[in-house]
Design brief:
Elements: H1 3-33, H2 38-50, H3 60-74, H4 79-92, H5 100-118, H6 127-144, H7 148-165, H8 189-204
Bound molecules: adenosine-5'-diphosphate (ADP) and magnesium ion (MG).
């Protein structure tokens, strides 16, 4: 297994463990404005991804495309196709040299795909608010010449700030939009998942 694939496989495996450990907490967050299944959905998607034999994969891009397919195929609702699209698109433009500029491009490509599919804009109180913050941060890091580990740490912090910013937003997309009037004061669970995925990346990549 190459170094890039080893890092990405380790990252995806830890994501799977984190979603298994935090499924109840994420379900509880989704109960406030949605139907209480977000943690269960993410756990199921990543558990399916874990059954794929990563040793058979030839590249880190392959690993991400496999996770994307597992999420699209095994998770219903809004989040499966949206998180699946993210990983499929990141995998499609992943540059195996693992540079800050390359990852910035891949993540932007992923966020563009999520927005094309779900139509959420910045400020709509969705996973997109955390993803856009991470993509912007990675691009700023690429311009500043940050090395990858520094860039990912900043991107994870930006995603966490994007997650926290959803608390004050009014929900405009997905099930939560049906409870728009009650949505201020509650964090968006999809944004919590994005922050988890980015923070986990810091432990493995770079
Ligand atoms: P469902 O809403 O179908 O039950 P989940 O509970 O698994 O799916 O996921 C809910 C999350 O999906 C929300 O917290 C939000 O971040 C994200 N989401 C829902 N609709 C959209 C959309 N149109 N664009 C971007 N993200 C969305
Ligand atoms: Mg839900």
């Amino acid at each position: 297994m190459g170094a890039g694939l080893k890092m990405v496989a380790g990252w995806l495996l830890e994501c799977s463990r984190e979603f298994a450990a935090r499924a109840d907490e994420l379900d509880e967050l989704d109960r406030a404005l949605g139907d209480g299944d977000h943690g269960t959905n993410m756990r199921r998607g990543f558990a399916a991804a874990e059954t794929l034999d990563l040793d058979d994969l030839t590249s880190s891009a392959d690993a991400m495309r496999h996770v994307g397919m597992a999420l699209v195929q095994n998770v219903g609702g809004a989040s499966g196709p949206l998180f699946g699209t993210f990983f499929l698109r990141v995998g499609a433009s992943w540059d195996r040299s693992l540079s800050t500029a390359g990852i910035a491009r891949a993540v932007r490509h992923g966020v563009d795909g999520v927005q094309a599919r779900g139509k959420a804009k910045a400020g709509d109180k969705t996973m997109v608010d955390a993803l856009l913050a991470a993509a912007d941060s990675l691009e700023a890091s690429a311009s500043a010449g940050d090395e990858l580990s520094v860039a990912l740490d900043k991107a994870a912090s930006a995603a966490e700030a994007g997650r926290d910013a959803t608390v004050e937003m009014v929900a405009r997309r997905g099930r939560a939009a049906l409870k728009a009037d009650e949505s201020v004061g509650v964090v968006d669970p999809g944004a919590v998942s994005v922050a988890l995925i980015l923070r986990t990346a810091v432990h493995h990549i770079g």
